[in-house]
Structure formats: C-alpha cells, structure tokens
Amino acid sequence: MDYFNYRDGVLYAEDVPLSRIADEYGTPCYVYSKATFERHFRAYTEALGGHPHLICYAVKANSNLAVLGLLAKLGAGFDIVSIGELERVLKAGGDPAKVVFSGVAKQPHEMIRALEVGIKCFNVESRPELERLNRVAGELGKIAPVSLRVNPDVDAGTHPYISTGLKDNKFGIPVDEALAVYELAAGLPNLQVKGLDCHIGSQLTETAPFLDALDRLLVLMERLRERGIEIEHLDLGGGLGVPYRDEKPPQPFDYASQLLARLSRWEGGEALTLLFEPGRSIAANAGVMLTRVEFLKPGETKNFAIVDAAMNDLIRPALYQAWQAIVPVDTRQTRESALYDVVGPVCETGDFLGKERELAITEGDLLAVRSAGAYGFVMASNYNSRPRAAELMVDGDNCHVVRARETVASLWAGEALLPEGGR
Ligand code: LLP
C-alpha cells in the first residue's frame, strides 16, 4: 500500500495534489512519499518481529540522501555496491556498522575506506576478491569481516537481466565451490568469516525460489559447521517483487514467516541473525514520475502521446520492456479516450514510457508514471543533453526539494575545450 491516492478526481501524494507540485517545481520530476517509505520499511521489521535481524536497504534502488536519512532514522542498515554509495550513507547519517558491501569487483581504495569506517561485512563474490581483501586489510592492520556470496543456482523466474542466482550469471561463488572458498577464507589471517550471503534476483513474485535458496544455504551451513566454520548471520539479499500491474507478490510478512518456519526446523536457526537487502519493495511504490503531455500525434497505425519525460529520465521501459502504470493526474475534465504509445523527446525509437495505453488526455495534461521510486532517478542519464529531473519528497502537506533540477550549465561541468591553437 502507498500514499498516492485520488481525492475528488485529483491524484495526491499524501496531502499534496500532484498538480500543485508540477506547477510549482516543473516537469518531469520524481515525487516520493515519506510515509510510504516508512510503511514499507516497517513491513520488514514487523514481519521479523523478535527474530534477530537487520534490514539493509539496497541503496542502488534509490540513493537520494533524504531517502537514506529517513531510513537511517528508522534503524535501517544499508547494502552498498560502491564507495559512492558508502559516502552517501555516511553523509545521510547512516551507521557504518550496519553496512554490508556487495558487488563483484570492489576496488582496493573502496575496501580501505570501508575498513576505516568499520562496516559490518563485505559480501565477497570470488576467490581473487577474497585474496585482495585479505591483502588490503593486512596492509591496514585490520581484520575484515566477510560473508561469501554464494550462487545457489535457483531460477528466480524473473526477467533475465535481473536474475542473478543462476549458474551462468556473473554473480557469486557456485554453491559446490563454496566450501573450499570458505576454507580458504577461514585460513587467511586478515579475514574473519561472519556470514553467508545470496541474492538470487529482483522482482520475484513467489516465495518458492527464496525457500529453495534457503534450503541450499542451510545444507552448506551444515557442512561448514562440520568443519568448525560458524556462521553468525545469513543474508538472503533483496528481490521481493512489487505490484507494477497485476502481479501479486508476497508481502514481507508472508515471506518472512515462511523463512522463519523453515529456519526453526534447523538446529540453531532461532539464534541466527537474518539480513535482508530489499530495494524495490521499499522504494518502488513510494515514488511516481510526473510528466506533462506536449503533443498528441495521431498516426495511421498508432497514436503517440509525446511527453516531456524520456528514456533518459526513466529507462526501465526501454531497457527491460518494463510495464509501469501511467495515469492522468487530474481526471475531472472530460476527454476523449484513445490508445497511445507514451513516448519522450529523445531521438530513439526505443524512447517510450509505455505502449498501447488507454488514456483520456489532451495536450498540457499531467501524467504520473507509477512505481517509479526504485530504479528510476538512479538510472537516469543526461542523454541528449537533458538535465536530470528534480526529486521531491512529500511529508504530509509539505513538499521538500530533495534534489534540485539540474541546470543546463551543469551538463558540461568537468568538461574542457581543447587549448587554443592545438597540441
Ligand atoms: N542485493 C543485491 C546484491 C542486489 O544486486 C540487488 C539488486 C539488491 C540487493 C536489491 O534487489 P531488490 O530488492 O531491489 O530487488 N535495475 C533493475 C533492477 C536491478 C537489481 C539489481 N540488484 C530494474 O529496474 O528492474
């Protein structure tokens, strides 16, 4: 559930009409709802109840400082994949001791910074990475806490681009090699084995793949235990899906209760700390992208609604053929309804936000692209030299600018002309 609802025919974010936001701050823009972020985060903590746990929000989903700060205040940990994400978390007041560091190729300078601030755990994805971390930690005179990201080879049943737990994905250590790599880790002097980690994919709409992965990890933990390697925490990654259209993904409560039931049958399961790295399920439906209709262009085979947002603002439809709801903000006027491809001004045929949408609109109308809070602004680019959109956060009847719209001059910040006369 989110806090974007119609009141008397106008779509609101909490207590603010989106039409007012568009008039005041311009379009395209991203609008987030603070209460929705809070609600989605709490759904996880409440689902886990008294079981020891840490919810490490996946920063990549939406890394705006206001979002991170808000979640940090609720006690969130963070899953990061770069030094940039780490610095964002610190800047927003996040606790480094609640940070886990994922990603297949952490650079030495990133490892150094993470060790200096004292993160909770490095989720290591390969042997060479383990060796690099051991060397870097040794040079600093530190012991690095590690978890191995194991690839359990389960089919998450999701889009191939966002499925990560299969044998032929680049992620993680194959489950049948994991034992040997754990033995290597346990023997390296500057590492301390803390956990076991997996992340099988994103936008999962069923619990079965998660439970399969858990079963495989528990078998591995049993073998590790026989070899005297104790695991303090089990990190099950992110991946819980959201309803974009008519999907009915499990709620965090169903997901957590099924996992806890499975875990309770395992010796020591009650004391095992569970970590989760949710991104989309916290952020997606906590945001919309607002865009205005520039022109309606009827065609022989298709009608186009050309809007002021484009693939550079929201790339999910173009990149994954992702479907996101597109709805009029103000439904009070009567308009003729037609089938439109909603497209942007970028010079690419793939520049669309939605195809064959039944919409009752006219030029100048506002549209909201729903479920845009995750993997929306963070994946935006300046393609076609388009300044990136503003980001706003609504809190009750207040609206805060949490990222100003980029200026045209900012487009070439850091660039330089060649010196006069060549050479
Ligand atoms: N942990 C790790 C190690 C991940 O790689 C990811 C996402 C997450 C957690 C968070 O997963 P979530 O709960 O958000 O599903 N850009 C794509 C999604 C890419 C997801 C990449 N990894 C999209 O727009 O659908």
TrEMBL record:
Entry EC no(s): 4.1.1.20
Domain Orn/DAP/Arg decarboxylase 2 N-terminal positions: 35-284
Residues that bind pyridoxal 5'-phosphate: G239, E277, P278, G279, R280, Y375
Keyword Amino-acid biosynthesis included in the entry's annotation: yes
Pathway: Amino-acid biosynthesis; L-lysine biosynthesis via DAP pathway; L-lysine from DL-2,6-diaminopimelate: step 1/1
Record PTM N6-(pyridoxal phosphate)lysine, positions in chain: K60
Gene3D superfamilies, A to Z: Alanine racemase, Lyase, Ornithine Decarboxylase, Chain A, domain 1
Molecular functions per Gene Ontology: diaminopimelate decarboxylase activity
UniProt domain Orn/DAP/Arg decarboxylase 2 C-terminal: residue ranges: 29-373
Name of a matching Pfam family: Orn_DAP_Arg_deC
InterPro entries to which the protein is assigned, alphabetical: Ala_racemase/Decarboxylase_C, DAP_deCOOHase_LysA, De-COase2_C, De-COase2_CS, De-COase2_N, De-COase2_pyr-phos_BS, Orn/DAP/Arg_de-COase, PLP-binding_barrel
CDD domains per record: PLPDE_III_DapDC (cd06828)
UniProt keyword Amino-acid biosynthesis present: yes
Binding site for substrate: R280, R316, Y320, E348, Y375
Keywords (A to Z) from UniProt: Amino-acid biosynthesis, Decarboxylase, Lyase, Lysine biosynthesis, Pyridoxal phosphate
Catalytic activity: meso-2,6-diaminopimelate + H(+) = L-lysine + CO2
NCBIfam families the UniProt entry points to: lysA (TIGR01048)
Subunit record text: Homodimer.
Function: Specifically catalyzes the decarboxylation of meso-diaminopimelate (meso-DAP) to L-lysine.
Family stated for the protein in its record: Belongs to the Orn/Lys/Arg decarboxylase class-II family. LysA subfamily.
Protein name: Diaminopimelate decarboxylase
Organism: Vreelandella neptunia
